[in-house]
Amino acid sequence: MKRIVFGQLVTMAEGPDGTLVENGELMVDDGRIVEVRSNRSDAFAGETVDLSGHLLLPGFVNAHCHLSLTGLAGKIAPGLPFVDWIRQVVQANEALPFTGRLRALREGAQALSASGVTSLVDYVAHTGLIHEYAGLPLRSLLLYEVIGFSPARAGEITSMLDDLLKNHPKGNASLKLGLAAHAPYSVSPALLQNLKVLAAKYRCPLSCHVSEVPEEVAFLRQGNGPFRQLLEERKAWNPDWAPPGVSPVAYLSQLGVLEGVQAVHLNCVEMPDILPLAGEAMGAVFCPGSTRWFGRNRWMPVRELLDAGLAVGLGTDSVASNESLDFMREIRLAGAMLPEVSRAEILWMATAGGALASGLEAGRIVPGGMADVIAFKRTNVKSPWWDTVWDHPGSGPDAVMLKGEWVAR
């Protein structure tokens, strides 16, 4: 049993307003939270850590990332048209050797951990990398990224994924597996529906990039534009496919795929999309750094989605479309880009919101919950608790606990 004496602790268990406990102690045992006490006991025989001058929060949840692209840092110029960016990423990624990819993966994980991330939701496209995540200082939900617009490959891909999920060890709280449909413009209708069936069969999360760019919306409404050109270029175009003539959100809903999905980006959603998202999706993920990197002039309507009752998390995306994996930077960027969302709400998005949007247990400090905790030194005890994070001089917390053990202090 461990005891952590704290000055302030926010459980994030009661929604965006959090639950603030002051001058108490946190009891931890066997990687789990035992109790949050609002007072301090004098007698305790176990290990005690004095963080009475600190604010404790649940570890951050990076709800969307492509960690295996960390080796592309600095290799892709910002400001490219989106489809040209895809071409450059594909080319640079194919040229990256496995050893370099693995080294960058580990470096990226260390950067996330240093900025307070304890849980990672990551798109992974290489089965050979999956076991490497077990050695990273993070809990990982790996979403196997699926691309396949040609209906001829739907059966083959589905069979491969069925085997992958069937053979993945169950009961590993630190390494879980799920599925990611790359996007509505790159996955056929039949394959999208097959992914939904597999996610239900194995009770695993399903994610998708949705309504990321105007070209995606135009492609689904009219069937033309740069995405069609890209599919033809890569010999993946299906001449029998007819554009559904609706928004990406409506398209996924019509296919029966929107229900329970983690929807990433949502930069181009319209007001009629809000209610279907709130009623069907598991959650949404806003990626402020990536949105800023592309120079977008519109982004996810976070305020409207929160007000509709949808869980919204934060994600770094990859360094192929972001300056860094510094999650503290993402939090501050979100604050700058979303003036209508309070700092307390943004920190909820960075913790419990990201967990709820991803189907994870993490993101809250509650009895029986995972002992993933971060600590920030309080520089002004008169300021609201959320300002402690914003005003923190470093790029990460002063202490990080993962699975009940200190990985940084």
Can you put this structure into words, describing what you see?
The protein is an alpha/beta fold. It folds into 2 domains: 2-58 and 364-408, Urease, subunit C, domain 1 (Roll); 60-358, Metal-dependent hydrolases (TIM Barrel). Helix content is 34%, strand content 23%. It contains 13 helices and 15 strands. It has helices at residues 82-94, 98-114, 154-167, 189-202, 214-222, 226-233, 248-255, 271-280, 288-293, 302-307, 327-337, 343-358, 385-390, and strands at residues 2-10, 20-29, 32-37, 47-58, 60-65, 117-124, 139-146, 175-181, 206-210, 261-265, 283-286, 312-314, 373-377, 399-402, 405-408. The strands form 2 sheets. The chain has an 8-stranded parallel β-sheet. Helix 3 (154-167) runs parallel beside helix 4 (189-202). The longest helix is centred in the first third of the chain and has 17 residues, at 98-114. It is globular, with a radius of gyration of 21 Å. The model has no long low-confidence stretch (mean pLDDT 95).
Number of strands: 15
CATH topology of the largest domain: TIM Barrel
N-end to C-end Cα span:
18 Å
Strand content: 15-25%
Specify the number of helices: 13
CATH superfamily assignment of the largest domain?
Answer: Metal-dependent hydrolases
How can the largest sheet be summarized? 8 strands, parallel
> Low-confidence parts lasting 5 or more residues at pLDDT below 50?
none
Number of domains: 2
Strand/helix succession? EEEEEHHEEHEHEHHHEHEHHEHHEHEE
* Radius of gyration from CA coordinates: 21 Å
CATH class assignment of the largest domain: Alpha Beta
Structural class: alpha/beta
